[in-house]
Specification:
- Keywords: Amino-acid biosynthesis, Cytoplasm, Diaminopimelate biosynthesis, Lysine biosynthesis, NAD, NADP, Oxidoreductase.
- The protein folds into 2 domains: 2-125 and 236-263, NAD(P)-binding Rossmann-like Domain (Rossmann fold, 3-Layer(aba) Sandwich); 127-233, Dihydrodipicolinate Reductase, domain 2, CATH 3.30.360.10.
- It is 35% helix and 24% strand.
- The protein has helices at 12-22, 62-67, 78-91, 104-113, 127-143, 165-177, 182-185, 237-250, 260-263, and strands at residues 2-7, 27-33, 58-59, 71-74, 94-97, 118-121, 148-155, 186-187, 202-208, 214-221, 226-233, 256-258.
- The chain has a 7-stranded parallel β-sheet with strand order 3-2-1-4-5-6-12, sandwiched between helices. Strands 8-9-7-10-11 form a 5-stranded mixed β-sheet.
- Helix 1 links the parallel strand 1 and strand 2.
- It is elongated and about 60 Å long.
- The structure holds 1,4-dihydronicotinamide adenine dinucleotide and ligand LZUJQKHR.
- Ligand LZUJQKHR binds at residues 100, 123-124, 155, 159, 164-166, 214, 233.
Length: 267
Amino acid sequence: MIKIAVCGAAGRMGGRIIAAINETEGVELSGALDRPGHPMVGQDAGYNAGLGAIGVPISDDLNAVVAGCDVLIDFTTPKVSLKNLEVCALHKKAIVIGSTGFTPEERALAAELAREIPAVIAPNMSVGVNVCFKVLADVAKILGEDFDVEIVEAHHKMKKDSPSGTAVRMGEVVANALGRDYNKVANFHREGICGERTHEEIGMQTIRGGDIVGEHTVYFIGMGERVELTHRAHTRDMFSRGSVRAAKWVATAKPGVWDMQDVLGLR
Ligand SMILES: NC(=O)C1=CN([C@@H]2O[C@H](COP(=O)(O)OP(=O)(O)OC[C@H]3O[C@@H](n4cnc5c(N)ncnc54)[C@H](O)[C@@H]3O)[C@@H](O)[C@H]2O)C=CC1
Ligand SMILES: O=C(O)C1=N[C@H](C(=O)O)C[C@H](O)C1
């Protein structure tokens, strides 16, 4: 039985991950964490998952919860995730990180911290999005330089980072396939007399509102035709099931940073 602890247990994803652990064979919830001062600390973690009481209280004691698990699943914020990675490395425990909004410097630090423990770090745990990542590289290469690339994502109004981690990864996949540097060609802002579109840029546009779970479209726009690759998330449950699948996989993985392409065998 793999013992999984969940950090961000009082959050939108935390509740769905606890529900997914509850329905998955071979895993059990060993602990639940949220930030000190959160009103749900001390309450049973099953309530946020819609399960009723399951006998695991939400704690704010990171060291104790990590010591008692085999794998920590963490859906919080980049800063919290880096701290969790550091504590998992101290305790030699594996980690799955779903938080998004990492800077390039934070990503480098995460790789450093994960040198001695296995870590799955992925901006999107759904099978559908990860298949999109895989085919996007081929689509970009086949359509080539004659097609302009624009990426549009839409999420709920509570989302804190922009563009989404998924949109950034899509931009990186396309840029790599076309031999471009995402950090140089991503264009996040057009306003006023901003001039004609450059050939190389990848436009990154963001919509926020209501309760949209998550939608991503990559447009390949040519002269006289365009191709659109869209993924729409209907619920958070495939992200949470994906994170539990990643936890089972990472429990026996070698140290280093992995992502869902590794977990799903899509490399
Ligand atoms: N990789 C994926 O498939 C997905 C990633 N995400 C990402 O997961 C993250 C969380 O998303 P949501 O659940 O919607 O956010 P949320 O705001 O509902 O939940 C985050 C939780 O983390 C807790 N938290 C904050 N500081 C903490 C600390 N120091 N220690 C422990 N807990 C702490 C908050 O109190 C909150 O309960 C975001 O970065 C989001 O973009 C969301 C969905 C899917
Ligand atoms: O914050 C969210 O909700 C989501 N975040 C992830 C991202 O930033 O890509 C994945 C998903 O789209 C939901």
